[in-house]
Design a protein that fits this description.
Length: 753
């Protein structure tokens, strides 16, 4: 079934925040950003800017009526800098003016002098300095110290991965409108309406019930609006409070790229031990996370890195440690996968290095060590309904790996200017928030007297089709046509205390809450139908395709008539459903528990061809077998798999963030930051959803799909690397993502004999 939003999008009829009619006396904001990565504010003069044409007010930290703090997990993030700055882009002041042009012109008149302090951009240096967000965390399974002596081969290495720009189409944007009695309405492009509500209430010095946050949809997010949207929304609310007028902020693309958080870069040391036959005995890693200048969500992301350190492999002895390290860069933040890709990339690097030393294909080691039912993860959870081997074997059978290897070997033997390589990438991704209290959701369902239905949840539609899925859940539960169902705006006054739309849990939790609410109303409607039909037992009543059945026989009573009569009988046609994911536990003192409701499995095969003259490469094919449970909407899920995989390919190949030693971002436009386009897409794509893999732990036996497929893209790195190994056999493999054409050329020619 097609997503109902699709027609609106292609017609240009979808309403985003910038499409809303402007309020009377709307004020526009421009932010004064620090141009120094670390320093003490010596002089700060806003008088010239305040006197500029059209300027209503210049707001500084001194104007904040409540608390100058928006930090979520840790209180380390002032809304506006006060006394010191910690990264290039640290907000200093808000210029409020009648027009956007006047606001931007005036901010150039703000005079700032900052005494510089030492700048640190390397997480390893930060670790040595002891500037950590929290003490390092370690997950342990077995005994690695004793296990190394049982290994036939032990190899060590280093893996580096860079950050990634979210590049959502809609930049950070928010509008705040003062209401009566000191209340505030905020329309924000956020994945976390409740987080914005809490932060705004904190800064304005009011209770949460005085702040309403509403949105219809986002123009993309990918994690970049989970926590990062909060500051801009609160700035709009602050400006609206101080001026008493509606206020709007909309970052331009350069500001958004330069000053907002990205995926976390990591620098990692690893050690892996194996038997001669490729059995992995032990794995050890130390992850240095570049957290940026404030905590943001870094510690939670680090936790999920540890959870996914062994990916799809059963390794009996594991010791993995991670440290969240402050640096003087813009705060790194959530990005699709939320720490999982960084962990998976390292174990794949370790396997490929070990494969080279053993003289085995990496895929032999991968297959030999795949998880099976009942295996134990380092965090203490056992596999259930494990599909790791099933997805691998289904893909291997479809693609005939021996024939593929022969074809590539023959090509490489016949060509000197280009080489081919392929790699397989299995995934195992846990689904739930590891911050356990977030695993809850609510839904409010109304059935109107004409038989139409509305559903309000805490989930945010950002292009992933979650509203469509929830409409389908409602329609299926009530057994009515999906066209009768409508999703309302996400609003903190309709559904309170919402969790972020993140962790691939939006459809799972909010869909389940909607199902619960619908089931509640359905029970009342069956009672009303029994009374209408003169039947004593509501348990004998069913609704099938908008027709009432009684004792297995079709009646003349239809959905619309039933609802109308139930209303006249004073039946409650509204319900609130609340769902809390059951059986989740985690003891951080022991680093053990059951943090995930279930896992998503899958395997991808990616083929690449490298141009050994130019250093460029193309991806010839990408084939995927994916574990989706029982799909609610296969068309949406297919789009999610392909889109996520391409985003993952971009992360490990083209997308490179760079900073000067002074902490200045060197990438601030799309002319400097390269992302995959249509020409970069694999020439051949295929996707098979695993059959007979129902998932009882989520709504309607489905599985989450937003994040897991991104990790398939990691296979692109190793496909290119294997092609390079064919071009320069015997050269030491390196693990530095993204694997840009520049790095390819360096491997091929720098120091080559």
């Amino acid at each position: 079934m097609k997503n109902f939003d699709t027609l609106l999008h292609v017609r240009g009829e979808s309403i985003f925040i910038d499409d809303l009619p402007e309020w009377a006396e709307l004020q526009h904001l421009a932010i004064v950003f620090s141009s120094v990565a670390h320093g003490t504010i010596k002089r700060f003069d806003v008088s010239k800017a305040a006197a500029a044409p059209g300027v209503t007010r210049v707001i500084t930290a001194a104007d904040i009526p409540g608390e100058n703090q928006i930090g979520g997990i840790f209180p380390d993030e002032p809304l506006l800098a006060d006394g010191s700055v910690h990264f290039v882009g640290d907000p200093l002041a808000i210029v409020v003016a009648r027009t956007r042009e006047e606001a931007y012109a005036a901010r150039r008149l703000v005079e700032v002098e900052i005494d510089p302090l030492p700048v640190v951009i390397d997480p390893r240096e930060s670790f040595k300095n002891g500037t950590l967000i929290q003490p390092p965390r370690t997950f342990v399974l077995g005994d690695t110290d004793k296990a190394w002596v049982d290994c036939d081969l032990v190899v060590e290495g280093t893996a580096e991965n860079g950050g990634q720009e979210h590049l959502y189409l809609e930049t950070q944007i928010a509008v705040a409108v003062p209401q009566e009695n000191g209340e505030m309405k905020i329309i924000s492009s956020t994945q976390s309406p409740t987080v914005v509500q809490k932060a705004a209430a904190r800064v304005l010095g009011v209770p949460q019930h005085a702040v309403e946050v509403e949105l219809k949809r986002l123009g993309g997010a990918f994690g970049g609006k989970e926590d990062q949207a909060t500051a801009w929304a609160v700035m709009a609310a602050l400006a609206a409070r101080v001026t008493g007028k509606p206020a709007k902020i909309c970052l331009d693309r350069r500001e958004d790229i330069t000053f907002t958080g990205k995926r976390h870069p990591y620098s990692t040391d690893f050690k892996i031990g194996l038997k001669k036959d490729g059995t992995i005995v032990a794995f050890q890693a130390m992850y240095y996370q570049n957290s940026g200048a404030v905590a943001d969500l870094s510690t939670s992301i680090l936790e999920r890195t540890l959870c996914h350190a062994t990916n799809s492999y059963n390794i009996p002895h594991v010791r993995v440690t991670a440290a969240a390290c402050y640096t003087n860069l813009p705060p790194f933040t959530a990005f699709r996968g939320f720490g999982g890709p960084q962990g998976m990339y390292v174990i794949e690097a370790a396997i490929h290095l070990a494969a080279e030393k053993l003289g085995l294909p990496a895929h032999v080691i991968q297959r030999k060590n795949l998880l099976k039912e009942g295996d134990l993860f380092p965090y203490g959870q056992y596999t259930e309904r494990c599909q790791a081997q099933r997805t691998w074997d289904a893909l291997a059978a479809r693609q005939d790996l021996p024939a593929l290897q022969k074809r590539i070997d023959e090509y490489n033997a016949a060509h000197t200017d280009s080489k081919k390589g392929f790699a397989l990438m299995p995934i195992c991704f846990g689904i739930s928030f590891t911050t356990l209290f977030l695993n809850q959701a609510g839904a409010l369902v109304h059935i109107y007297a004409d038989g139409s239905v509305t559903v309000s949840t805490g989930v945010v539609e950002m292009g992933q089709g979650v509203h469509m899925k929830i409409m389908q859940v409602v329609a299926k539960t009530l057994s009515i046509d999906v066209h009768r169902v409508h999703t309302q705006t996400t609003n903190t006054f309709k559904v309170a205390n919402t969790s972020p739309t993140a962790a691939s849990s939006g459809a799972d939790m909010n869909g389940k809450a909607a199902e619960i609410a619908c089931s509640d109303i359905l029970g009342r409607l069956k009672g009303a139908a029994a009374a209408i039909l003169g039947h004593n037992n509501p348990g004998d009543i069913q609704i099938r395709d908008e027709v009432v059945w009684c004792e297995g026989r079709e009646t003349q009573l239809k959905w619309k008539e039933l609802v109308q009569k139930a209303y006249l009988m004073k039946t409650n046609l509204s319900a609130y459903g609340h769902y809390a994911v059951p059986n989740l536990t985690f003891d951080k003192s022991k680093e053990k528990g059951r943090p995930f409701a279930y896992h998503v499995y899958g395997t991808a095969l990616i083929e690449a061809t490298v141009d050994c003259i130019r250093g460029t490469y193309r991806f010839d094919a990408a084939h995927v077998v994916h574990d989706i449970g029982r799909s609610i909407n296969e068309l949406i899920d297919e789009g999610q798999v392909y889109g996520a995989m391409m985003q993952g390919i971009g992360w490990v190949t083209l997308e490179e963030l760079m900073y000067s030693k002074e902490g200045k971002p060197l990438v601030d436009t799309l002319s400097k930051y390269k992302v995959p386009d249509m020409r970069f897409t694999p020439e051949t794509l295929s996707l098979q959803f695993l059959e007979n893999a129902d998932n009882p732990y989520a709504v309607m036996n489905s599985k989450a799909v937003g994040e897991p497929p991104l990790m398939y893209g990691i296979g692109a790195y190793f496909a290119v690397l294997n092609a390079l190994a064919a071009a320069r056999p015997g050269r030491e493999l390196f693990f530095s993502a993204p694997l840009t054409p520049k790095k390819v050329l360096s491997f091929l020619y720098d120091g080559a004999k």
